[in-house]
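User: Hey, quick favor. My workstation is busy. Could you predict this chain's structure for me?
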Amino acid sequence: MTLVHKAANIHKHSDGLSRWALTNKPENPAYVPTEFLEEVKDSYTLYKNCHILTSQLDKDCIDAALANSLDHIWKTSYDNGRFHLIEGILYSRSKHTCVMVLFLDKVRHNANQIMNDAFEYAKQKWDKGHKTPEFKVGDLILVSTLSFNNIKGPKKLKDSFAEPFIIKAFHGTNAVQVELSG
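Assistant: No problem, here it is.
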């Protein structure tokens, strides 16, 4: 899936933090060798309601008889405009969310695997940034001065850290008490 901006520029930032969809190619860090979206599209032909919805939303002229052949729950949601077709993928919109419609167990398993991998990646990143510090009372630490806006003078000439201080006590897991001398 590739998004093209209004200026006809293709979004090429593959930093993993982008909100834009990236192509499923090996140079993309989120590359999945299986064609997940193709499996999803193929699954729609196996189910009557999905097949009808994709054909109705895909073409400009809507066949009323075909729309009336939907099951009651599907027809009600279709009449309320809750289904969208984006690049051949059917999405169901509710109040504040929009979810992909999945049917085959193989596709659901693949989607769960992708979600679990994303969760594990996010958890590892979070754990790495929030790990418990390994220092103890009596160790020397540097105090960051970057958040002190009240220190006068140009920022370029300020030191990023103040001299080493001895840890006197702990207050929680990350808060420490130091003795400032000077």
